Amino acid sequence: MHDVTGPSVYLAKLSAYLDKKALKALKKKKIIGEQETSTAILKHIEISLRTNSIDWVYQFLDSEHNGLKILVDYMNQMQDPSMFCATPFDPALPSCSSTPSLTSGAFHYPTGAVIGNDTSNGSIGTHNSSYYEDSKSSSLFKKATAASSKSIVAKNIGDPEDDVHVCVSCMRAIMNNRIGFQMVFNDSQAIYCIARSILHQSLRTKALVVELLAAICMVTGGHEVVIEAFNRFRVEYKEVHRFQTLFGFFKNPPEFHVDFMTACIQFINVVVHSTDDNTYRLALQHEFTQLGLDELLESLKTNESEQFQIARGASKSRGERTWRIRLT
């Protein structure tokens, strides 16, 4: 029987990536190997959260180890918009060479420019739909790290997008037990970090993010915290309309990804129908109608995926029932 590595070992290493001096000290002591990346450490944590005993998970989460906070702090660092490289879309952002941080951020996001208000067909569309329609060989988000290798001061730091994906997977593992779910639920920054991960270039990651948000939304009080996360996202990323970034990916994905498309429909269903306030429910449905949901569902009715069509059918039928409530 092999010894199980305790949470403190992994958390000490992950914490070091939040502090450049601490990282250098651990490397000097050879606690972090020359080839040991942050991604590898995060993968060890994710596997341990899934496969080790529940006692290991509770130890990871307890006040002594504070694993959730360390994970959220690291995730927040990877996503921080202030760490983005300057781009033609947003020249006001700091350049990589002037950013004194461990990373330049996982996402390249043209603030306020992805989705705009196009009412030519009575719905909200995209100013730059081609941004979502890149070929498979290109990414939705140019990695900020590609702009300048000098932006990463430690070669042990893995690819930021890989790290964010594994962080989201860690969140899923934590939420698989009652105590872990409650801790994430009570941490608004954790929920916001999950929501902000919809900017990740991988549709697989986006699907996981939307599934986690739907799960939170279905718990008593969860609807409010998820809505608050999207309100905050709207302000931070200068959306014209709430949910428009998520809906933009749903409407114009680079390819049809059944898990992501299905997760989006299910999330919209949950967001609209998990509130008991009929007036608010109608207002939420109107938001998605204005974004073009009805037209999109109609255009996808010939899609051959059975999984997707089941979710689409549920969305259509629930929507019709909601509108009948208003008419009566």
From TrEMBL:
Residues 1-328 form the GBD/FH3 domain. It comes from Steinernema glaseri. One of its GO terms (molecular function) is actin filament binding. PANTHER family: FORMIN-LIKE PROTEIN. Pfam families: Drf_FH3, Drf_GBD. GO terms for cellular component: cytosol. InterPro entries: ARM-like, ARM-type_fold, FH3_dom, FMNL_animal, GBD/FH3_dom, GTPase-bd. This is GBD/FH3 domain-containing protein. GO terms for biological process: cell migration; cortical actin cytoskeleton organization; regulation of cell shape. It comes from the Eukaryota.
